[in-house]
């Protein structure tokens, strides 16, 4: 565990906490390095929760580092973190109780689910410092149609959780963030890890396919899953009115 990011694992749930409060959890080189290390440690988890300490979830790029002429910009560690949050076979959940700015919006968008306190505000402030919300546009625009996010991206104006939920950027607004996260984790843990991984993938892939290809690939996936040990165990448990004992799923 590092100084700015820590990981706790319990019962299949990995909780990754951003704790760089001196700079409002800014995306410094050290924080991103430790975040990727934390994701390494969480690869076997069945759910990953990304949370924070302090009043800010993430303030975006570390501008002191980014303005250093002796340190050329490198967005690869941020891209790696977002890609991994999106592509892990297990669900990823952002637990947000403080403000979210710039790159922090990208981290939230990269998670499958997000639980946000009603008081939280968001802003895509990149244009106000002379750059664009470039790499974070990838997860954002996979969730939100361009017309719905154009005003915040072009103006840098803050927006609230109601708007974020309305446009599909976040999935949950809750007065009890931790309680809602716990409920979601419990629900995910009840499912088959293999089936959840397949579901997470199809949510990402099917919208990119033409209809005939989608039918063919999803028919093959359905037949494969119904033949699996997970399906056999799940249906047996349903008949016998017991909790399934899911086979080990190697990613």
Describe the protein in words.
This protein is of the alpha/beta class. It has two domains: 5-187, 2-enoyl-CoA Hydratase, Chain A, domain 1 (Alpha-Beta Complex); 191-240, no CATH class. It has helices spanning 29-41, 63-66, 76-87, 103-110, 137-143, 146-155, 161-167, 177-189, 193-205, 211-226, 229-240, and strands at 5-10, 13-18, 47-52, 56-58, 92-96, 99-101, 113-116, 121-123, 159-160, 172-173. The strands form two sheets. Strands 1-2-3-5-7-10 form a six-stranded mixed β-sheet, sandwiched between helices. A four-stranded mixed β-sheet has the order 4-6-8-9. The model has no long low-confidence stretch (mean pLDDT 96).
Q: Can you identify the CATH superfamily of the largest domain?
A: 2-enoyl-CoA Hydratase, Chain A, domain 1
Which CATH top level class of the largest domain fits? Alpha Beta
Tell me how many strands there are: 10
Q: Quickly give the CATH architecture of the largest domain.
A: Alpha-Beta Complex
């Amino acid at each position: 565990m590092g100084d700015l990011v820590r990981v706790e694992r319990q019962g299949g749930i990995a909780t990754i906490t951003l704790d760089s409060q001196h700079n409002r959890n800014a995306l410094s080189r050290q924080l991103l390095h430790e975040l990727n290390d934390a994701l390494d440690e969480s690869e076997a988890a069945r759910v990953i929760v990304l949370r924070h300490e302090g009043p800010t979830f993430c303030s975006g790029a570390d501008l002191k580092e980014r303005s250093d002429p002796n340190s050329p910009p490198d967005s690869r560690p941020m891209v790696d973190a977002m890609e991994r949050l999106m592509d892990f076979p297990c669900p990823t959940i952002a637990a947000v109780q403080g403000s979210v700015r710039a790159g922090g919006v990208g981290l939230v968008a990269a998670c499958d689910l997000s639980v946000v306190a009603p008081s939280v505000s968001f802003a895509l402030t990149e244009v106000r410092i002379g750059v664009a919300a470039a790499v974070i546009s990838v997860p954002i625009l996979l969730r939100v149609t361009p017309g719905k996010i154009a005003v915040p991206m072009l103006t840098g104006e803050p927006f609230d959780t109601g708007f974020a939920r309305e446009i599909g950027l976040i999935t949950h607004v809750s007065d009890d963030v931790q309680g809602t996260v716990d409920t979601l984790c419990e629900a995910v843990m009840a499912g088959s890890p293999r089936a959840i991984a397949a579901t997470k993938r199809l949510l990402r892939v099917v919208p990119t396919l033409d209809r005939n290809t989608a039918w063919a690939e999803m028919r093959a996936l359905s037949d494969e899953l119904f033949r699996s040990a997970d399906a056999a165990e799940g249906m047996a448990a349903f008949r016998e009115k017991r909790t399934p004992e899911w086979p080990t799923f190697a990613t």
